[in-house]
Specification:
There is one protein chain. This protein is 48% helix and 13% strand. With 505 residues, it is an alpha+beta fold. It has three domains: 285 residues, Butyryl-CoA Dehydrogenase, subunit A, domain 2 (Beta Barrel), CATH 2.40.110; 175 residues, Up-down Bundle (Butyryl-CoA Dehydrogenase, subunit A, domain 3), CATH 1.20.140; 33 residues. The strands form four sheets. It has a six-stranded mixed beta sheet, with no helix packed on it. A four-stranded mixed beta sheet has the order 5-8-9-12. It starts with 5 loop residues before the first helix and ends with a helix. It binds flavin-adenine dinucleotide (FAD).
């Protein structure tokens, strides 16, 4: 099956998966008030692939079947391919204001990168290369939506998993001719209620010292369908507000509340053909470092960030114009700041694509440096964009009523008292509810946390950045410069300086 319709996707979620939320066990996620909005949005994204005006950008001809498949599954074989993939991501991101972390493209680019580097998965402990390639083909040809869990649960971060007195952390507990059996938990599966497959890989950043190296019970990688027996997801409470008078009261929460959950593996059987990494001491460095997946995953992220920060900029401009505060110098400075943040993200994307290069595996990767720069700064900049909207919207963010009041008993009051110099009441209420949801609601808070943590702990990744950076050449340059200066001062320049001194005296 090539690209799916939205309807086909929604039907695929009716598969007996186990989703727990608020003490309920949800069987029909598509029609559950907590998941329905995001399910519709995901369906819309897949449907866009069929749109006559977009299909050439969102799809390409499958290398195996020749049929149209999603562009973000592509293995880029040139700089043009990288750019084409970025353009496809941008179409989806513009359509969702960059608010969906697990739109299908995020995992698609990662799995494609692993498949391109599949030889890395053929190890002494296990030959996983063919399985990785088959999985890539499977998700591409069936247009499947994926989530992933890379992190062990927060139990005791002072010890590695195998030194903890518990069976909380997911681990291999048995194996036989059919495959391995996994018991325990992993975090956090964003979109778990709405994904077709879950990818389980070792944590991305290796932090443990050699003595703390994980026992090989914890060193595995695999992917299984979301409805696999024994697999269940326990979700946080929803940030959608289904009881509000109108979805327009919380427009972003209503459409993009993608949900997060902890994955519980209750003696889940993983067939060998779905295992990618098995009892491998180097599992963490293997998938991240050696396959060079990082820049691919972050290519999706930087394009998403460019769309998201442009949306936040546009919102700040609209809020400021509605009450004409943009005539004040201090407000103009804030608006210039949010414009610059959007431009920063866009520039990082352009630079990453311009610096694309061919990897030893033959595929093309976005340039690393602009992406690392973006990753190190964006979450702070995104927080700042939220703060700017808070500062500009001020009391208005909590001072507009729900949309329902426009048709309520006091509608005449609402028409009169909620207008502003540049917006009638309905326009201003809608605008400020959007601004509230983007910058101040529980949905907004989760977006901020997402930007900070979704690709790992920024503290540890920036420490890694420092440790990996080639510092010696730069430090040597400073010492050479000092030596050179000293020499010049002891020669001609020094004498001239001394002569000036004497003349001055
Ligand atoms: C909204 C959201 C969505 C997410 N979605 C996904 C997803 O879909 N899939 C997925 O796999 N993950 C997801 N994550 C999880 C994300 O990968 C982790 O949050 C991230 O890796 C940080 O790990 P942690 O949350 O366990 O924090 P911890 O590791 O517990 O860290 C908490 C704090 O303690 C500090 N700390 C802890 N241990 C150390 C140490 N050894 N050395 C130094 N400092 C330390 C950290 O710097 C940090 O400040 C998501 C997270 C969020 C917030």
């Amino acid at each position: 099956m090539p690209i799916r319709t939205g309807r086909e996707y929604l039907r695929s979620l009716d598969d007996g998966r186990t989703i727990c939320i608020d003490g309920d066990q949800v069987t029909d996620v598509v029609n559950d008030r907590r998941f329905a909005g995001a399910a519709e949005t995901m369906a819309m994204l897949l449907e866009m692939q069929h749109d006559a005006g977009l299909t050439d950008k969102l799809t390409y001809a499958s290398p195996s079947s020749g049929e149209k498949v999603g562009m973000t599954h592509i293995t880029p074989l040139s700089k043009d391919d990288v750019v084409a993939r970025g353009d496809a991501i941008q179409i989806w991101m513009d359509a969702t204001c960059g608010m969906l972390g697990r739109s299908p493209d995020y995992k698609n680019v990662m799995v494609a990168a692993w498949a391109a580097a599949s030889e890395i998965f053929d190890r002494d402990s296990f030959q996983g290369a063919a399985n990785v390639r088959d999985f890539h083909q499977h998700v591409r040809e069936n247009d499947l939506v994926m989530t992933h869990v890379l992190v062990n649960p927060q139990v005791d971060r002072s010890r590695p998993a195998h030194l903890q007195e518990s069976e909380i952390v997911a681990q291999i507990v048995a194996e036989d001719d059919a495959g391995i059996t996994i018991r325990g938990a992993r975090m956090v599966a964003t979109l778990c209620a709405l994904a077709n497959e879950i990818v389980v890989m070792p944590a991305a950043i290796r932090w443990a010292t050699d003595e703390q190296r994980k026992s090989d019970d914890y060193s595995f990688g695999f992917a299984i369908p979301a409805n696999t027996e024994g697999l269940r997801f326990i979700c946080r409470p929803s940030m959608a507000h289904p009881d509000s008078g109108s979805p327009m009261d919380y427009p972003l929460s209503s459409m993009y509340e993608e949900s997060d959950g902890i994955a519980i593996f209750d003696d889940v059987k993983v067939p060998w053909e779905r295992v990618f990494i098995y009892r491998d001491d180097e599992a963490e460095t293997l998938i991240h470092g050696k396959t060079r997946v990082g820049p691919h995953a972050l290519h999706q992220s930087v394009v998403r960030a460019a769309a998201k920060s442009e949306f936040m900029m546009a919102l700040a401009l609209a809020v400021a114009r509605s009450t004409k505060i943009d005539e004040h110098l201090n407000v103009q400075l804030l608006l210039a700041e949010t414009i610059n943040i959007a431009e920063f993200a866009r520039t990082c994307r352009v630079a990453a694509e311009a610096e694309s290069f061919q990897t030893p595996f033959g595929n093309w990767s976005p340039g690393l440096a602009p992406i690392q720069l973006w990753q190190s700064m964006f979450w702070k900049f995104y927080n700042r964009q939220c703060e700017i909207i808070n500062t500009l919207g001020a009391g208005g963010l909590v001072g507009v009523p729900s949309i329902a009041e426009l048709a309520g008993e006091v509608k005449d009051d609402v028409e009169k008292y909620f207008q502003s110099v540049n917006a009638d009441s309905p326009t201003r209420i809608k605008l400020f509810r959007l601004a509230y949801d983007a910058s101040l609601s529980s949905f907004a808070g989760r977006q901020r946390l997402y930007e900070q943590y979704y690709s790992g702990d920024p503290n540890r990744s920036q420490s890694l950045r420092f440790r990996m950076f080639d510092k010696d050449a730069h430090i040597d340059r400073i010492h050479h410069m000092l030596d050179d200066m000293e020499q010049r001062f002891s020669g001609g320049i020094g004498e001239r300086v001394a002569a000036f001194r004497e003349a001055g005296e």
